[in-house]
Amino acid sequence: MSSAVVSTSAAQGRPFVFVEEGAEGCPQPSVAELFAEGRPPQRVLSTSVFSTSTSKDARLAGVTPASRLAVRPAPEMVSSGIAAMDALTGGLPRGCLTEICGPASSGRTTLLLAALAAATRRGECCALVDASDALDPQSAAAAGVELDRLLWVRCGENSPEKSLEQLLRATDLLLESGGFGLIALDLGDLPEQAARRIPLTTWFRFRRAVEHTPTVLLAVERQSIAGSCSSLLIKLGLIKAASPEDRLAEQSVDSQFALPTHAQLLTELEMTAELVRSRLDRKPVRSAEITFSSKTAWAG
Length: 300
What we know:
Layout: E1 2-6, E2 16-20, H1 31-36, E3 44-46, H2 52-60, E4 77-78, H3 83-89, E5 92-93, E6 97-101, H4 108-121, E7 126-130, H5 137-142, E8 150-154, H6 160-177, E9 182-186, H7 192-195, H8 200-210, E10 216-221, E11 232-242, H9 244-251, E12 268-278, E13 289-295
Parallel strand pairs: 2-3, 6-10, 6-11, 7-8, 7-9, 9-10
Antiparallel strand pairs: 1-2, 4-5, 11-12, 12-13
Helix pairs in contact: 6-8
């Protein structure tokens, strides 16, 4: 057995002694000789402690093999209130963020009221955070929403910035309190520039808050703004809007008078829904795009 004296600047002249087993070379001063010279060694270590296999095992001790990782269960799906939409997406996932985006008159409100009606019929309490104070309670009741089970948070301020600030505060409080089967954020009437000011970290916080809960978090927007934080992204579009004047025009093609193009009473919408993104295990049953229609209450 031999020893090697190694000096470093950090040691300030105080040598380290490494004892190597079976090493051959020039004889080095022993530990006793070092003490006799007034230069006590700072530390005596054996190189066997720093073997490659030992340090590698230490690094891998806290790593779980992929074969032992628990499989995350698929979220529970609930009805959106529209059969064609359920066939496309499988429903709305609990404990996840779902985005519904589209331009005006593309069916955003139709799908929102249908989801609220389906949730209240299941006996669940729901919350609607309305950024623009756009909800019509009579239309909601006509769509089947049980208003006694709906908490309507009205954020109609003079500026979109203040409305957005109220919406984010209310959403944090609702997610923290719990107990809601569905929490809907209606951002559809906010300017797109204002809605995009919501940082991605806020959507990530919302997603983590709703995770492992039975709550459906639904965001209604003009354009997708939550990015990868949403588990389901549905894009809506308008195909055709029908009115009594359109039917009258079809019946009187050869008439001498021209029908007005303004102040027409809307009776039916024909819309398309596209499944843009789904991070769920369940794949869509049919194609990734469907069409559905919605009639007004007075149209019968």
